[in-house]
Amino acid sequence: MNTTPPVWLVGAGPGDPELLTLKAARLLAQAEIVMVDDLVNPEILQHCPQARLIRVGKRGGCRSTPQAFINRLMLRYGRQGKRLVRLKGGDPCIFGRAGEEAQWLRDRGVEAGIVNGITAGLAGATQCDIPLTLRGVSRGVTLVTAHTQDDSELNWAALAAGGTTLVVYMGVARLQQIQQGLLAGGMPANMPVAMIENASSPLQRQLACQLSQLCTAAIAFKLKSPAVLVIGEVVNAAALAHSYSETSQLAG
């Protein structure tokens, strides 16, 4: 593989600009063009003051730049030999389309490199003092997205029986399906859940509840995207600032 491909698919992390990797910062400093997603913290763009910025919004539930247009732009600049960074929120390989974008470019003769970023599920949990794995409690982590291209349902019964910490991305619009699917699949109604909004940013909010309370608590909390759910006994290890009860007054 070419060690210096013209196109780099780079993860910016979930929000905190100090979580950017050194490699990502170096590539941004060298970039001539940066195609930046909506969820990237604007402070990160200080690393590429000389680059031409092309904003290609990609946010769940909102109007987005068509993927075909993004692909064509990357291909054009890649063929021209421009130093291009496609800057994505979180990690580009975790629900960030890096795999399909890289393959699409390679099929057309343009090499693409990938730089990992810290994913929101990990950073958000850490910010809440939730260890996604914990000896004697959880021996694994399962990352899933509740938003599928064909609107098909996940195998909630298998996820409920898996025994791992479950981290759900892009689930705000499908909370009822998540709750019903896991309960029907045998997950205990009192399984702890953490809702984490705007992970690792100054706007981060979090709330703990039980699985049976998920939809009611989310409405009371006014949960909005971007947010992740952490579902599992590891949530009990955290000292969350706010926990939901039907008689308590929720804080933002």
TrEMBL record:
Stretches assigned to the Tetrapyrrole methylase domain: 7-214
Major enzyme class: transferase
Top-level taxon: Bacteria
Keyword Cell cycle appears in the UniProt entry: no
Pfam families documented for this protein: TP_methylase
GO biological process, any: siroheme biosynthetic process
This enzyme's EC code(s): 2.1.1.107
Keywords carried by this UniProt record: Methyltransferase, Porphyrin biosynthesis, S-adenosyl-L-methionine, Transferase
Gene3D superfamilies cross-referenced by the UniProt entry: Cobalt-precorrin-4 Transmethylase, Domain 1, Methyltransferase, Cobalt-precorrin-4 Transmethylase, Domain 2
Transmembrane stretches, start-end: none
Family the UniProt entry places it in: Belongs to the precorrin methyltransferase family.
Name assigned to this protein: uroporphyrinogen-III C-methyltransferase
Source organism (scientific name): Halopseudomonas pachastrellae
